[in-house]
């Protein structure tokens, strides 16, 4: 089996060759948050945003981004995802929307990048749709929470203090 590296024998960038890897069930969960003014959050939660249901649009954008991660991240494999779920949960303290993405497939490589991309694009979509009323929004805490499957098995992030 070739080394799992993005560099070839001459040091040039390349896509990792996963040909010899077994197909296994794989799953990754990522999270992030977009902090905003309480008035912006209230507008979203109460359905009074001038652009409509911004959470629904952000959810679809995140799912679409997960499916196109290979077009966004150099040397990423094009994957046939079997499931992408996004949860966007408004939270009062701090005033924010928590975003969690869960991506699954049966394949030869993991889906961590797809889950992280889904969270990032969902947050960016919320920012784009709400920037007219709140330019000071902040995207924060984008990270991998858990991954399952593959040769390295199960990994889970440690809890962070709130």
UniProtKB/TrEMBL annotation:
Active site: residue positions: 128
EC number: 4.6.1.17
The protein's annotated pathway: Cofactor biosynthesis; molybdopterin biosynthesis
Record gene name: moaC
Annotated substrate binding sites: 75-77, 113-114
Family matches, as InterPro entries: MoaC, MoaC_bact/euk, MoaC_sf, MoCo_biosynth_MoaA/MoaC, Mopterin_CF_biosynth-C_dom
Organism field: Marinobacter daqiaonensis
GO molecular function, one term: cyclic pyranopterin monophosphate synthase activity
Reaction(s) this enzyme catalyzes, per UniProt: (8S)-3',8-cyclo-7,8-dihydroguanosine 5'-triphosphate = cyclic pyranopterin phosphate + diphosphate
Membership in a protein family: Belongs to the MoaC family.
SUPFAM superfamilies xref list: Molybdenum cofactor biosynthesis protein C, MoaC
Top EC class, one word: lyase
Gene Ontology annotations of biological process type: Mo-molybdopterin cofactor biosynthetic process
Quaternary state and interactors: Homohexamer; trimer of dimers.
Domain Molybdopterin cofactor biosynthesis C (MoaC) intervals: 15-150
Keywords linked to the UniProt accession: Lyase, Molybdenum cofactor biosynthesis
Name of the protein: Cyclic pyranopterin monophosphate synthase
Functional note: Catalyzes the conversion of (8S)-3',8-cyclo-7,8-dihydroguanosine 5'-triphosphate to cyclic pyranopterin monophosphate (cPMP).
